[in-house]
Structures are given as C-alpha cells and as structure tokens.
C-alpha cells in the first residue's frame, strides 16, 4: 500500500517547489502583516467602538465578514481576516489536491506512475500528506507569528487557536477535494465544482450569521445553517474574542469521514474514469461557434465572466459598506490621511468611492491583460497554426480578440461606476448621480487602451515574455496606487505609474488632456505592435 | 503548372539554418512524398508554404504566388493536417471539424458524414478525451471534408491503426483520381511508396534527391533501401 509514497511525495515537492511555498508564505505573511496595518488605522478605542456599533447594525457587513463580537482589536482582526484568508487557504488546498490526483490521471501521467510498483491509492495518500504539512506550516506560521507580534491584544493560546483552526479548516478542504476528484473525469470540472462548493459554503455561513440572534452576553449566535459550512466551523472557535477549542472536533471528524469516502470511491472506480458519467458534447458546432467571432468569444468567455463576477462582487461590497464606514472615517484622523493619500480629496463619500473605484479599475486592467494573454496562449499551444492555415488572416484574428477584450473591459468599467452609485443609493440616504459615476468609470478607458497597446507591442516584438513583462509593470502600477503615496516616494517615480496622471473621478473633475494623450499613445502602440506581428514568424513554445 | 515550388529556399532561426537552399517542385494532380529524418526541415518548409514563417531568402511559391503575402487568398485552395495535432481541449471533435471547415470557406456535409463513418470517429467527445489516434482522425476529417485543390499533410497517419491507415490510403487514392494535389510528409516509407507519384528527400535543410517512383524502382529495391542509402553513404 505504501510502496512509492516517498517517491511520489518527492515528485509533488519537485513540481510545486515554487507554487506551494508562495501560497504558504503569501497567506501567512499577509495575514500577520494585517496586524500592524489595522492597528495603525483603527487601533484607537474610539474607532473600534464606532466600528463595533456600525457592524452590529449592518446586515451586509455581517454577511461578508461575519459578526464583530466586541469593541476590541481581536474582534476587528477576526472580521477582517478570518473569512478572506480562509477563502485563500481553501483554494490553495483544493487546487493542490486536484493538481496531483485528477490532473495526473487526465494527462496520462498516472498510468505511467501506476505501471511501477505503486498502489492506486498512493498518489492520494502522498498529496494528502503534503496538504497536511502545508496546512501545519500555515497553522504554525499564523500561531507563532501572531503570538510573537502582539502579546497585549490576545493571549498566546488565542493566537495558536487561530492558527490551528485555520490549518484544520484548510485540511478539511483538502479532504473535500479528495472526494470531488474521484467524481469527474477532468481536472477542470473538479476545480469548477470545488470553486462552486467554496462559494456555497461561504454563502451558507453568511445566511447563518445573517439570521442569527444575540445571546444574553450580546454575542451573535449563528443559526444551524452555519454548521453545514467549514467556514462556520472556523468562525465558531472565535479565537481572538471568546476562544472555544471544542469546535475543532468538527473538522477533525469531517476529515476522517471525507478521507475514507475518497479512498472508498477510489477503490471502486477505474483509473482515468470518474464516478459520475462523462457528459456527451455537441456533435456539431453551433452557427455562432463556427465563425471567427464565435470562436474568439468561446475562448474569451470564461476569462470575461470570471472577472465580471469578481468586479461585481467587489463593487457591491464597496457600495454597501462605504456609507457605513464613513461614520468611522469621519471620526478617525488616521483614516482621513489614508484616504487622502490614496487619491481621494474633497467630499468624503465621493473621495472614498474614487479611491475604491481605482481598485476596481485595476481589476479591469488585469482582466484586459489576461484576456489579451490568450493571443500568446493560442500561439504557443499550437492552436493558432490551425487557424492561420485557413482563410482567417493574422490581423482579423488579433483584431477580434482585441475588440472582444476592450468591449468587455469598457462594459466592466461603465458597470462598476454605475453599480457603485446604485448600491450607495440603495443602502443609504445619499443620492449619487448614477450617470456621473458611469462616466467616471468610463473615464479610465484610455488607460485600458494603453495597457492593451503595450500588450500588443510586446506580443509583436517579444512574444515569449510579453505576459511576464506586462504583469510586472502592472504589479508596479497596482503597488504604487496603493502604497506609493504612503511611502512618500519621489513624484518622478510615482509618475511612472500611469494611474497618477488621471483624475480620480468622480471625486475630482475628469480632465480631458491626459485622456487624449493616452488615447494617442495607445494608437501609436497599436500601430507598432500590429506591424511587428504582421512581419514576424509564428513562434510555438 | 507547379502547385508548389521552392528554389534555393533558406530559413534561418538566428544563425542556425533550418533550410539551406532547398528545392522542391510539386506539379498539379500528383501525390508528392516529402521524406526526411526528424529535424531535417520538413515542418519548417510546410510552415513557410502556409505563410506561418517568413523565408530568409530564395523562392517559395504556392500556385505561383507568395505564400507570405497572399496567405489568406491562397488558403482558400488548401487544407492542412498539422504534424502536432493541438486543438482546443474543451471543444468536441465535431465542433472542431465544423469550425475549421467553415473558416476554410465551407465543408461538404456528405463528405463530413462519410469520413466520420469511415474513420469510426465519435464527434461528440471533447478533444481532450480522445486517444492519440482519435486526435489524428479529428485533424484528418477536418482537412479531408473540404473540397480544395491542394492538401498539405504533415505526418497525417501517426498513431493510426493499420485498418485506419488503410482507410487513409483509399481516401488519398480517391482524391488523386479527382485530380487533387497532395503533399504528403511521412516517416512511413511503405505508405509513401504505396501512394506517391514522386518523392523529395530532404536532409539538414537541403534537397538530397527527387525521384519519380518509376525511376526509383529501376535503381533500388524499394523506397526504404533508397532512403537508407542516402544517409548511410554520407
């Protein structure tokens, strides 16, 4: 049974030698880093009290962050981190398990592995051991980090409980992924189902919190629905406010049960097959798919829909929370400084929303880069060769991708502005002009054009590293828009980030001049890029 | 008229020459074998003929026109089976066949149905779930469903079983009867010998020899002995 386990563990570590450490360090370090950040901004008694009053009244906040148990820092840290970092840990685990079980079977590597002296279940054992170690590292990292960093705000026991609850929560998702990986034939489907389950679990506990009632001590007790969700188990430990160790039993038992189910299903099925029957596809292409535009849309669809959901979720969250947050904001000098630094000036709400809108804009830019990245993806995978051997021309192929992505991006920009205003209007007394906010969103379109132009130039001249180069620059722009002003950097360095040249609409008046310049630059880039593309070889791999 | 013609064709990648003065002529209505070891420059030649790569120097003509400049116009007249069959994993075989057919300017419904039946291919499965042989069949059906004067086939039968190999050979003969021109790049010498009117042999980017099968039969026992003699001698 255990023959080959060591070798397979070695294989997983070799394949994930960059990915897994990045996940673990990223999750742990960013969580620990939240402590000083939150303390500096909200750390004073007055802010915490206002926050507490706000959150105990705000159903939307309850839904997205869980209940704030008390007017203290532990409670704030809980609502700010426990669910969102939990979300990241859940994805780390499900992706890890699927990658080393179902994906191996799908690409045929598993056949080769199993032709050696290896049991069919060994891959699953190996990846679960790795998942266990990874979650242990996260638990230790969070526990030790929080215990070391702050001794006055929580006890060492509380810090360790928090870490342990997070680690067990992660391992529960690894066990769920182990079951789902047995059910379907493709890794893609498995990851899709798991992402859906994570969403449902998040939602269930949201409803559970939402419908919960306060007990005699004024602490919110969620309804039983929360107990159907691993997120609910995680919250029930209340590590930083009213610590409870016994809820850790639930994920522990769950892991044993789910793990057994996974191994049972594995023993009942053929290698490569799923428990659920594979669905039949269409024997014929639809009218639309058979056209160049239809194919382009087919290839771009998932990227567009994924980012659209992300943008809408972000906008609704901001739109619902911002009016409430302004109470805190009005009373906190620190927050005023922070918002002013992020680019918001003038009246509080528009300033805050302008700062937030620029985050959404950065998401739309990321969508643009990923969408256009399909150009190189199609070329390097060899798909493009088949298309260019037909009557489809290079320029038309590129143009269609460019048009689909820019229209998609423009739609997101307009929607994010309008929807933001609509949400604020719905949950508060403010009456923002929806049209003005839609225009504010659209005012970032020339920025999107410039990024698209840069991708096209890179794709034409340096196709192999086009995506990498642009993502690095994007990271710089995103970093600058968030932290640049706080770091008090030189204006010349700040100016390298394109965002600083644009007015922070709607808080600031939209200025035409930079928008015109950006558009002209984008056209120039487009001309250079398309010329290079027309004159270069097709480069596979 | 020569459907395909290259003269002193050179293609360099950096300083390395993939093609180094390559000559080939394929006349209308013939099945032309294109033989050579791995890395000799077969796929590079084909990609130049398709306008995917730009020649460094020399001449490459397809129907008398420049394949780089007139790519789209010329592609009305040809169908292509790539050496590495890579299609979109989440489209079905049937969808891929329709898609490529329509992009090529239309495909014959009766041919499509007939070929699916003859090659015993289930068009309702996602491409990623096909075996190696079935992936090859998708590429073959997609190309052969189009009624065009020229077929460029880059190792079209790799992974096919002997029964399917047989079906393929019958299809090629039928197309030849209709006067189609076929460029067949292959490692299977018995296949080339059975199908081709002429063969061009390439080695490290240069033409080694060009023969009609009749000439070949006079000097050599079979294509294999010719092929081996070309490489063992040097």
Describe the structure.
The complex is a heterodimer of chains A (541) and B (234). Chain A has 22 helices and two strands. Chain A has 541 residues and is mostly helical. Chain A is globular. Chain A has two domains: 5-268, no CATH class; 292-535, no CATH class. Chain A starts with a helix and ends in a 6-residue tail after the last helix. In chain A, strands 1-2 form a two-stranded antiparallel sheet. Chain A has helices at residues 5-15, 19-42, 45-57, 59-65, 73-100, 102-107, 109-114, 122-149, 156-183, 187-210, 230-236, 249-268, 292-331, 333-341, 348-380, 383-388, 394-427, 434-442, 445-461, 466-483, 491-495, 512-535; strands at 213-214, 220-221. In chain A, a hairpin with a 5-residue loop joins strand 1 and strand 2 (220-221). With 234 residues, chain B is an alpha/beta fold. Chain B has a single domain, classed as P-loop containing nucleotide triphosphate hydrolases (Rossmann fold). In chain B, strands 5-6-7-3-8-9 form a six-stranded mixed β-sheet, sandwiched between helices. Chain B has a three-stranded antiparallel β-sheet with strand order 2-1-4, with helices on one face. The longest helix of chain B is centred in the C-terminal third of the chain and has 16 residues, at 162-177. Chain B starts with a strand and ends with a helix. The mean pLDDT of chain B is 91.
